[in-house]
Design a protein that fits this description.
About 50% of the residues are buried. The chain has one domain. Helix 1 crosses helix 4, helix 2 crosses helix 4 and helix 2 crosses helix 5. By secondary structure, it is an all-alpha fold. The chain is about 75% helix and about 0% strand.
Length: about 400
């Protein structure tokens, strides 16, 4: 018999907690890890569909709390949400299973691309997969923004704040700054009736936090040894804020400009590989590790860049309900959640430009939206079917 989960989310507004087996967590996140194309926003869309809509593990409000808290951490946000979901069901064993299962398919796929890149010099087959999968992910993303928006936009001020955050993101403001500014504004609104000096200092602290305040030191490396590689990628796992796409700037600064381990062309090829595969873009580290030190380098780079996330996501899972129970912290999270949905929506525009390139992709996106909304078709089957169609249309099979 499975142990009963001692979940504080069983109170008002939350569904009763039911025991979840590690096997179910294993199957769900392994499947998501194999099919979650489209970047962090699309990953969150799939997790919302599976954990909230289908399995009723938690309410949309609690899911948004996890998303908002993980977005404030360094590292791959959607991967940390997967870990926090695992923690919410089976504590640390659930977190470990969810994290490994979500990361492993992406890392293995990226490793295969790295081997192909070194041996043959191209990764052509993945272009057909992405051609078919991206339009479906666009439809899934739109569906998730609409559903999560109903929870995040509970009041007119929060809805207006979300619109402002979306505009700020489209104009290039750093995602972390958008999240913190939104949380700071809602915290200030909460504090306004209570102009106590000690409480006001919380708002100052929240709005003054930014990536610029974090020390980003240089790893003491003397060559491409395994310890040097471990130090560099462990540092990246701790200091990269924003999303997997921000990783490119850090990799350029460290591996290209400072250490001269790889060329700019190799860096772009590695990031492309991370984007072409399902799962976290941080799996780019696997590709780079293979280029630098072969199989051992790939394993070590992957381990190092994801290790900090396991610790931080566990803390989020453990403290999420205590944070929400505080009126001030809850107000801050309300703003962060509104901004998080806005950031997901802001991704739809560039994703649409990259995905909807011809009549076939428009048709796939439209058909996917219809099947998702009207007929409630499982998103995984849509992704796999469209990826196969993409291979056929691109002449890769």
């Amino acid at each position: 018999m499975l142990p009963t989960v001692n979940d504080p989310a069983s109170g008002p507004g939350f569904p009763p907690s039911e025991p979840t087996s590690l096997g179910e967590i294993f199957r769900l996140f392994l499947r998501l890890g194999m099919t979650a194309f489209g970047g962090p926003a699309a990953h969150l869309s799939l997790m919302q569909s599976e954990a909230v809509e289908r399995r009723k593990w938690m309410t949309r409000e609690r899911f948004l709390d996890l998303v908002g808290a993980c977005n404030l951490l360094p590292g791959p946000g959607s991967t940390q949400v997967a870990m926090a979901l695992g923690y919410s069901r089976r504590k640390w064993p659930g977190l470990l299973v969810a994290g490994v299962c979500f990361i492993l398919p992406a890392s293995l796929a990226t490793l295969g691309l790295a081997w192909s890149y070194v041996r043959f010099g191209n990764m052509a087959i993945t272009k057909g997969i992405l051609y078919g999968a991206k339009p479906v992910m666009l439809a899934i993303l739109a569906q998730a923004v609409w559903k999560l928006g109903g929870s995040a936009w509970r009041t007119i001020p929060l809805a207006f704040l979300s619109l402002v955050c979306a505009a700020a993101a489209l104009f290039g403001l750093h995602p972390l700054l958008v999240l913190i500014a939104a949380g700071g504004l809602t915290l200030l609104a909460k504090l306004r009736p209570y102009p106590d000096g000690s409480k006001g200092s919380l708002a100052v602290l929240a709005t003054s936090f930014s990536p610029a305040a974090l020390p980003v030191g240089s790893a003491a490396v003397g060559g491409i040894g395994l310890l040097s590689l471990l130090a560099v990628f462990l540092k990246l796992g701790v200091v990269v804020f924003g999303s997997g796409y921000v990783l490119l700037a850090f990799l350029q600064a460290d591996l290209v400009a400072r250490l001269h381990w790889i060329t700019p062309v190799q860096l772009l090829d590695a990031v492309t590989a991370g984007q072409l595969t399902p799962g976290p873009v941080f799996a780019t580290a696997t590709f780079l590790g293979y280029l630098l030190r072969g199989w051992s380098g790939a394993a070590l780079a992957t381990f190092a860049i994801f290790l900090p996330s396991f610790v931080m996501a566990g803390l989020v899972g453990a403290l999420a309900e205590r944070i929400r129970a505080s009126s001030l912290a809850g107000a801050f999270l309300d703003g962060v959640n509104a901004a998080a949905v806005a950031l997901m929506a802001s991704v739809a525009l560039p994703l649409g430009r990259a995905s909807l390139v011809d009549g076939w992709t428009w048709a796939m996106a439209g058909a996917s939206a219809l099947l998702l909304i009207r007929f409630k078709v499982n998103a995984t089957w849509l992704i796999l079917s469209s990826a196969g169609l993409g291979l056929l249309l691109q002449g890769r099979v």
